[in-house]
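Sample intake sheet
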Amino acid sequence: MAKKTKTTTTKKKSFYSETSMNFLETYLNNASPTGFETPGQQLWLDYIRPHVDEYMVDTYGTVVGVINPQAKYKVVIEAHADEISWFVHYITIDGFIYLRRNGGSDHMIAPSKRVNIHTPKGIVKGLFGWPAIHVRTAEKEETPTMKNIFLDVGANSKKDVEDMGIHVGCVATFDDEFMVLNDRFFVGRALDNRIGGFMIAEVARLLKERKDKLPFGVYFTNSVQEEIGLRGAEMIAHRINPDVAIVTDVCHDSSTPMMNKVRDGELAAGKGPVVSYGPAVQNNLLKHIIDVASKNKIEIQRQVASRSTGTDTDAFAYSNMGVASALISLPLRYMHTTVEMVDKNDVEAVIELIYASLKAIKNGQDWRYIK
């Protein structure tokens, strides 16, 4: 009788360490509303600190981890840290709360969502109330707008609300937590763009673990206030005064229902990082990234940005008499909702593309077309 041979399967080793995944979950679950990013920035700094030589924090909370701070030639790797949220704007006499947006918060998804209201006394739980289907008239049914959505915190009066520590100016964020869907997608609120903060921190980790020595300064920059006009990047770009900036953010996955490929382009999660074409993108730096992707067999997608990218790329590109800048985006489903989704393989590919692009830059490289 023939002897049976035992077959074994080799499980692919995870790209991410256990520490990385613990950080990602903690970082995404933490709230970092625009203008109030400090707790998230502290988490990010604590994670990246072992992988850099020094760090800086500016007046409004942008955090930068630096490798080779003494070098004259400076390369920025950047993401933004802030998330959309709501401001308490008006408290009614009977204890209901009306809001204003802080960034591009979506009023259509608000009804029945739970929220955390950030007060001087700590987190207060609340929810967006909405009339039951039984009492709505189909022919004249109201849709959610900024005029009719409201928070209910279980109060009977304005005084009850104020006694909880809630006042005009408090910030509210959706109460939704990170998960992994079908072992393929990272899902949660505020992947736009804390997943970017995670990716640039992972680039710093790889450089440290692989013992890479770069001849120029690398500035891992996690900027605040992108959601209200790229303000954090605008400020830190002047402070760093870099020679090169590679920015990472999210873009729309147009493969899901109700998306318009004619308007948004043909982009899909799972098909790799997205490189952008547009006036703010420096073409020689873009070619550099595309060549690196080809050499390293990293599949990429392409999109057109037209007048502006709408990301921190614009802030860096037009700062300090012009900085060679490029954008590497991560396809994301359901932007500015509580169920933003990105493909795990795309996240890994973006990290590797930024890492390889960084390694291929020559010290003092001149990006001009005409010399």
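Comment: The mean pLDDT is 95. The two ends are 78 Å apart (CA to CA).
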